[in-house]
Design a protein that fits this description.
Elements (H helix, E strand, L loop, with lengths): L50 H4 L3 H10 L44 H10 L4 H6 L4 H6 L5 E6 L10 E7 L5 E8 L6 E4 H7 L3 E10 L2 E17 L5 E9 L12 H5 L19 E5 L4 H4 L3 E3 L7 E5 L2 E5 L10 E6 H10 L12 H13 L1 E2 L5 E3 L13 H17 L1 H16 L3 E3 L14 E5 L6 E5 L24 H7 L18 E3 L8 E5 L6 E6 L9 H7 L1
Parallel strand pairs: 3-8, 4-7, 14-18
Antiparallel strand pairs: 1-12, 2-3, 2-6, 4-8, 5-6, 6-7, 9-10, 10-11, 13-14, 15-20, 16-17, 19-20
Length: about 550
């Protein structure tokens, strides 16, 4: 294209000179540049935008960045280093200087000081390094510490409940990632006690009536207002009011995952929009009083007996399906406090059946053949196993529970002082000893522990959680309970009226008066730290413990 342009330039003779300037206009061709995600090898998004990378443990993220020689500040592979990065990213989750895909929800609400203290407290050995990588299968099989589920189930690969990961927060500024159950049959929202204690929302006591398949019950609980929810895979935000419950129960095998969607023929297109199974608790139940969270924005229907997919404001979720052989999951759920009450109730049964089972006979035979006495007069009794179990290595579970306990000890100085006083008394009395041979075999078991406060007393008692399951197995599952030798409560009340004066006494730490055979003490290992919470050591109980299903029968026999 020729474009004539007249230019006037002044010369010394003041003559006008006309020049013709030729210019060319080029039509640029459109070049389509596709960005390949190095994580899933697809060009529909960049590596920094793939939320499945965000869901990985931090150790796996770091390995992925190293293996692909990426920049830690922008996740690009053009050869520059993080300190020289010209395009440093800002996290959309916490507004800190790192890519959103490198964000880890374990760091929410924690300060730099917390990270430094944890790094100092973390033991630098090979076992700890190996335990930082927990597979999705192990996380799926592990039962959460707050809930006990006795479940009859089969393969549930084709079954999903409407659960979706969300960030939950309140006015305290702390944010926690949990699974939320979407329940169209509940007219209220509920939050677990663990989640409420972490985010510290504003609340007030309120009496509610719960209607379930088992009938109606009235209870007093806390109602929390203005709890904020934010999507894990979306940036949508809403708020709810919720009632506190001890735990929100859910079969973790039915939580929607990318693997479940990919295993079906009709949902493979949305598989990459679902995260893998995250190692987070189920902390919320969202009912119909939050309709915006339940409104389907898109859906992929399924055929008869197959699950379907639904997109909500918080992202995609799955629902429905039929187990492979038609067997349904049946849950009997008890909170941790109820479990402790059941242990205490064994001391005060009000019935006498008079029947002796084969298990009771086996229990008596084991104790009769295995009981010895020390020179000090103390009895040493074996653990009455139904069978000699082959147990998985559950040290990673005990370490997780200890990490949670350490955070609680740091937050509550009074709780820490009472906890350390109890544990120190346990060790000083010789009821627990440090493990000298820390090698891992199939004949050892690590027992998590927690503290409970008496509602009327200020005393704190440490309970060893022998019912904690790992890969579907708990120590209590392998122990015999023993026969019922306890006097009938009805008989005690009748004899109470015979004389003028009644005497009541209590044996202090009755279970701790009976020692465990040395060859069985490896089944009673636990993890504990020094007073500055910096060094973790392995201990094992030398006595029968409060929390084992066999302890009451052993003490009664002794």
């Amino acid at each position: 294209m020729l474009l004539p342009i007249s230019l006037q330039a002044s010369n010394p003779q003041n003559k006008t000179v006309k020049q013709q300037v030729r210019t060319r206009t080029f039509k640029a061709s459109t070049i389509e540049i596709k960005v390949l995600c190095l994580f899933c090898k697809k060009d529909s998004h960049a590596t920094t935008q793939f939320f499945k990378l965000e869901a990985l443990p931090y150790a796996d993220k770091t390995k992925f960045v190293f293996d692909n020689r990426l920049c830690f500040s922008c996740l690009r592979a053009d050869g520059h280093r993080s300190k020289d990065c010209p395009n440093k990213a800002t996290c959309k989750r916490c507004s800190k200087p790192h890519p959103t895909a490198m964000h880890t929800f374990e760091n929410i609400g924690r300060t730099r000081k917390d990270h430094l203290e944890e790094r100092i407290a973390k033991p630098r050995d090979n076992s700890t390094t190996m335990n930082t990588k927990v597979s999705a299968e192990a996380s799926q099989a592990e039962t959460r510490k707050e809930v006990r589920c006795n479940t009859v189930r089969t393969t549930n690969d084709g079954v999903a409940c409407m659960a979706i990961p969300v960030y939950v927060s309140a006015g305290s500024g702390k944010e926690k990632l949990v699974y939320a159950l979407l329940d169209t049959q509940s007219d209220a929202c509920f939050i677990s006690k663990e989640t409420a204690e972490f985010i510290e929302p504003r609340g007030r006591p309120e009496q509610i009536t719960m209607s379930t398949l088992n009938g109606c019950s009235t209870q007093t609980t806390s109602k929390y207002v203005n709890i904020k929810l934010r999507g894990f895979s979306t940036n949508e935000v809403t708020s709810i009011n919720a009632y506190e419950q001890d735990a929100i129960t859910c079969n973790r095998e039915q939580i929607p995952t990318a693997a479940k969607a990919d295993a079906t023929g009709h949902l493979q297109d949305i598989a990459e929009k679902l995260p893998p199974l995250l190692d987070i608790p189920v902390g919320l139940l969202i009912g119909t009083d939050c309709p915006q969270a339940l409104t389907p924005l898109d859906s992929v229907p399924g055929t008869a007996g197959k699950m379907f997919a639904m997109r909500t404001m918080f992202g995609w979720t799955l629902c429905g399906g039929k187990p492979q052989n038609g067997t349904r999951s049946i849950h009997k759920t008890d909170t941790k406090d109820k479990e402790i009450l059941n242990i205490l109730d064994q001391e005060f049964k009000d019935t006498e059946s008079g029947k002796v089972s084969q298990n009771d006979l086996q229990f008596v035979k084991i104790l009769e053949n295995g009981t010895t006495q020390t020179p000090d007069g103390n009895y040493v009794l074996p653990l009455p196993f139904k069978y000699m179990p082959t147990l998985p290595n559950n040290k990673v579970q005990a370490q997780k529970r200890l990490d949670q306990l350490i955070r609680k000890l740091k937050a509550d100085k009074s709780y820490k002082a009472k906890y350390f006083k109890f544990m120190q008394a346990l060790i000083t009395a010789g009821h627990a000893e440090e493990v000298t041979n820390t090698s891992l075999t199939d004949k050892c078991w690590y027992i998590p522990h927690f503290g409970i406060r008496h509602p009327k007393k200020k005393k704190l008692r440490v309970v060893f959680d022998a019912s904690a399951k790992y890969n579907g197995i708990a120590l209590n599952d392998a122990l015999l309970q023993g026969p019922d030798h306890i006097n009938s409560l009805v008989g005690i009340l009748c004899r109470f009226r015979l004389e003028k004066i009644a005497i009541c006494c209590d044996i202090q730490q009755m279970f701790h008066n009976f020692y465990v055979q040395p060859e069985h003490r490896d089944y009673l290992r636990f993890l504990w730290v020094d007073e500055d919470l910096s060094t973790c050591k392995e201990y094992q109980m030398t006595v029968h413990l409060f929390g084992a299903t066999s302890s009451s029968g052993v003490a009664t026999f002794g």
